[in-house]
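Re: [help] complex structure
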Amino acid sequence: MLPGFRLTLGFTLFYLGLIVLIPLGAVFWKTSTLTWAQFWQTITMPTAMASYRLTFGASFLAALVNAFFGLIVAWVLVRYEFFGKKIVDSLVDLPFALPTAVAGITLASLYAQNGWIGQLLAPLGIKVANTQIGVFIALTFIGLPFIVRTVQPILEDLDPELEEAAASLGANRWQVFWRVILPMLTPALLTGFALAFARALGEYGSVIFIAGNIPMKTQITPVIIMGELDMFDYGKATAIAVVMLVTSFVLLLSINVLQWWTNRYNTTNLA
Amino acid sequence: MTPVATTFHTPRAGHRRSMSEPPAVRWLLIGTALVFMALFLVLPLVFVFTQAFAKGIGFYFKTLNDPNAWSAIKLTLTAAAIAVPLNCVFGVAAAWAIAKFDFRGKNVLLTLIDLPFSVSPVISGLIYVLVFGAQGWLGLWLNADNPQFPALANWLNDHNFKIIFAVPGIVLATIFVTFPFVARELIPLMQAQGRTEEEAARVLGASGWQTFWRVTLPNIKWGLIYGVILCNARAMGEFGAVSVVSGKIRGQTNTIPLHIEALYDDYNFTGAFAVASLLAFLALITLGLKTWVEYKNARLNEPEISS
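Output below.
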């Protein structure tokens, strides 16, 4: 028998409790100091409601756009050979590696009216900086790797015999993709979508610079929390944080179920 | 791989067409992927470095040589130097317990370890304000008006010891947001490796620590390095959580990302991008190291797969 079980598990639980569980518990302790009416009034105030709509809507759209382009990027990286493929593959992780504040000021400057991209869009009457489109752009930037990195390994492990079988039975390429490949990728695509969506809901640094944080228009939910903190109203900040935390936990649970589904598909493919 | 299958039948032309896309579709897909990546990833990266040097190399180094910039760099390095080793020790301990032993509630523990990833950065900062801030748990207990531990309260007061709006809070927030990185790399790796090698070492008379240093550590080396690289990148770049607990006092509690924000808010855009270029450079190094470790790892695993 190997030694160290008590020591390592004991330390793991101690550190987890100290750094994660006790501080997270403080959120629920602070919420319990509010009355139910106060809590409800805070989480349903108009600026908060507007921020939920924007945060959910923009996160959903960004994850959707990423699911489409991410699938294409993953497909191209797995199935085709082209010049510079290795560099493109490494670059996919840039949004993970680039600090959000750097991404934030960069996107804000690129899409400003006199910025590289902003000045091309201005004649078309499209404003990105300080609008909800800006929020969507920032969330699209941070979400791409989630889709690519969940779909890519599944696509690599896909058994070519299944495609051969479909082809020899007379299916054309589009039918093979639509009826054979895509259904096998669906769990991974959904997992990637959920991961990108979950990350987008809580995102702060890359959004605030391009969004301009106009109340009722371009304030995301973390900005509402930040505003309450700046006024030292910790009760209100915590109430809205509870809404976000509960949402993330529900999402986390669905992601775990999706991942279990993805792995089941994957192992049946291998077997 | 399976030569028998390929010689089984001679594929008809139609069949071959169904096994891959026509060249036009292929180039359309590659083109779409490349344009999307160029627009969303390459352009921002190029933009950071172009803007950083927009006012010349002299201005660039003047911005970086500023005392506030130096203080931010030192604080960021300090926070990472504390957070990364702690989370590294935790990651190894957690992976050892979870991968080498069976116990009830393992899946719950795995979910709890991943929890910090699903918490918004702003909330990651908020929870420490609720624990250690003036209106928080510790603040209420150690309040000067109502000290439950008078000696401790006085000592803290005398030494002007603060956690929130000070360096300890920044370190704690950094530990929280980078908490799962190393554990998450090591757990699946050590689970896949099993415990036969360690058990063999024990049977041959090695002590527990000898087994760990001589058998386990060499086996998990690349996974550990990978986790540390990702952990460090996030530790040095964290913005939201740190901005809640820092108080943003220039030259004292500003990290590099907060210093970038301060310069940007002052409309010193070139200065902001000059400092941002440091972090963008760090991101490029991170990506390079990551690719290199993945390459090393793939080569390490090759003989195992083919055997």
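The CA atoms of residues 165 and 207 of chain A lie 47 Å apart.
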